[in-house]
Design goal:
The chain has one domain: Protein Yjbj, Chain: A. Helix content is about 70%, strand content about 0%. The protein has 5 helices and no strands. Helix 3 packs antiparallel against helix 4 and helix 4 packs across helix 5. The longest helix has 14 residues. The protein starts with a helix and ends in a 10-residue tail after the last helix.
C-alpha cells in the first residue's frame, strides 16, 4: 500500500498502528497526522532504536495494511 493512502486515511490506520507500537502514547500517535517521518521519529524514541530499524518496522507494518474502502453508495 502506498504511504499517501495511509496518510490521507490516518484516522482509520491509527488504531492498528497504536496496537503495533504500544509504547507510543495516544497523543504522539495523533500528532503524527499520518506523517511517516514523524511516526519513524516516535518509534525511534519510544523503542530506543536506530532510524533504519524503525523504518524497517514501519515498512513491514505498511505492507500488512489493507486499503480501507468507503462503503459503496447506492
Amino acid at each position: 500500500m502506498n504511504w499517501s493512502n495511509i496518510e490521507s486515511g490516518w484516522n482509520e490506520f491509527k488504531a492498528d498502528a497504536k496496537l503495533h507500537w504500544i509504547k507510543i502514547t495516544p497523543k504522539q500517535m495523533d500528532d503524527t497526522l499520518g506523517s511517516r517521518a514523524q511516526l519513524s521519529l516516535h518509534v525511534q524514541q519510544s523503542y530506543a532504536m536506530s532510524k533504519e530499524d524503525a523504518e524497517r518496522q514501519i515498512s513491514d507494518w505498511q505492507a500488512r495494511q489493507v486499503a480501507k474502502q468507503a462503503p459503496a453508495k447506492e
